[in-house]
Amino acid sequence: MKITILGAALGISVGLAAAQTVRTQFDQEMDFKQYHTYQWREHPLIAKHPEVRQYTVGAQLVQSDVNENLMRRSYVPVEEKPDMFVTFFVTARGGQEVTSVPATSFYSGYYMWPYSWYAWSPTWFSGWETEVRNYVEGILILDFVDAKTNKLVWRAICKDKIDDMKNRHKNIQKTVEKALKKFPPKV
Length: 187
Fold this sequence. Notes:
Blueprint: H1 2-11, E1 21-26, E2 37-40, H2 44-48, H3 57-72, E3 76-77, E4 84-106, E5 110-113, E6 116-120, E7 123-146, E8 152-162, H4 168-180
Parallel strand pairs: 2-3, 2-4
Antiparallel strand pairs: 1-8, 4-7, 5-6, 7-8
């Protein structure tokens, strides 16, 4: 089932919306000043399950935006002997948002009140209106691994609802930018 979900997720090209949540985790003992070069490596889950290896436009956008961001900050991509490996994983899951609000009806007639000759009738509560909205939550996990020790040293987990696939490039760009603002971490 995980393989099916992964394949479907890679196939839809994740476009994360502007209000993403980004969490990072990192090795607090690591000296991040030692990292200057990087090399892309396939995510271990995809390596174990080659049948889900479906590189999509979304995956290419993630890699391109990460490259642009890192190179702008003087990290150099290399073919051999990198300081760190960069890998990512894209997935999605369905969800539902249920909202209930009071439904009202208004009676606007006159009526007699014991101590006044008329008054407006109040608004009357008449039940609840429930709305169910289905959505897709996109998830991007970006990992940096120390090339010497093969140990994960930094991870960004980015999540949000996918509302409009037409804006995926801008949304992926904003997601990567937001995640990499936290790299290298300030210990």
